[in-house]
Design brief:
The chain is of the alpha+beta class and 281 residues long. Helix content is 37%, strand content 30%. It contains ten helices and eleven strands. The strands form two sheets. Strands 4-11-5-10-9-8-7-6 form an eight-stranded mixed beta sheet, sandwiched between helices. Strands 1-2-3 form a three-stranded antiparallel beta sheet, with no helix packed on it. The longest helix has 15 residues. The radius of gyration is 20 Å and the shape is globular.
């Protein structure tokens, strides 16, 4: 199974709630995360988890949904077949298509380099002269840089430090994850990135930078280290993406190839009423 479906992964990232494993008769698997805030529950995607819909060919989807406790809404990220998406649509789910970006494992490093944009090449040359990449076990620094980066855009870090620490420990124990930092010549951490991998794919999970320091292309430099590690180990590289155009543009500049996934939503009547009530207040 993919990394995001592993029980230990789900134990680490499913904060403020619990997850339930559903196994279909035809052996498809769907771990469902039920998040709770006060008395309210909803099915959603855990933090740092790219996609978590049914994995494998599904049947009797409706019977599985009937087994779920009452929730205000369901938001599911799926990289599934059109038949799976159609099955959710037939059950009243809204289906929105997005893109994440990958570099496939059948590319050589030379082919990946050829796919870099002019700006990306310039950034990487600049970074190579100013920065060095080190493997770090300081999850606190990564988390602080993530928070700084999001705060600059008026957003709150959705990943708590306990969740980041728990996931990093689980990945380190299984030797399938790492934090890499870009340091300048004064040994200051300019940027950091969090990666995880399974047998097929290296995933970029999160990153952040210190805007007070000259960047010299630090973010792309760390992404490129991830790409090199993936291709040299026979894996594909998954940048993620899909919601912010400026971020997607960076992934495209790195040679990322778009791949579809779907966000499926179903909101209960009570939740629609609650949202409408709050909008009037």
């Amino acid at each position: 199974m993919p990394l995001f479906y592993q029980p230990w992964w789900l134990d680490a990232v499913c904060d403020s709630g619990h997850w339930i494993p559903f196994i279909f008769e035809d052996q498809a698997v769907w771990p469902v995360y039920i998040k709770q805030k006060g008395p309210f529950k909803k099915v959603t995607i855990p933090v740092l988890t790219g996609r978590l819909g049914p994995w494998g060919k599904t049947s009797n989807l409706q019977s599985v949904l009937k087994q779920l406790p009452f929730v205000l809404g369901k938001v599911i990220h799926v990289a599934g077949t059109k038949d799976t998406i159609r099955a959710f649509a037939d059950l009243g789910f809204r289906t929105d298509e997005f893109r994440h970006y990958i570099i496939p494992s059948n590319k050589t490093l030379q082919q990946a380099e050829a796919g870099l944009s002019t700006m990306a090449r310039r950034n990487l040359r600049s970074a190579a002269g100013e920065l060095s990449v080190i493997k770090s076990d300081n999850i606190n620094t990564l988390h602080a840089l993530m928070s700084r980066s999001l705060e600059r855009h008026g957003e709150k870090n959705p990943v708590s430090l306990p969740v980041a620490t728990r996931l990093f420990a689980a990945l380190s124990e299984r030797e399938c994850g790492a934090v890499w930092s870009a340091q300048n010549k004064e040994q200051q951490t300019v940027a950091a990135a969090f990666f995880a991998w399974d047998a097929q794919t290296v995933y970029y999970l999160a990153g952040g930078l210190d805007e007070r320091l000259p960047q010299s292309g630090a973010s792309r430099f760390l992404l490129w280290e991830g790409v090199k590690f993936a291709l040299e180990s026979g894996r594909s590289f998954d940048f993620g993406g899909g919601f912010v155009e400026s971020v997607d543009a960076v992934y495209r500049s790195m040679g990322g190839v778009p791949q579809p996934y779907w966000v499926l939503q179903q909101i209960s009547f009570l939740e629609k009423w609650r949202r409408g009530l709050f909008e009037k207040v």
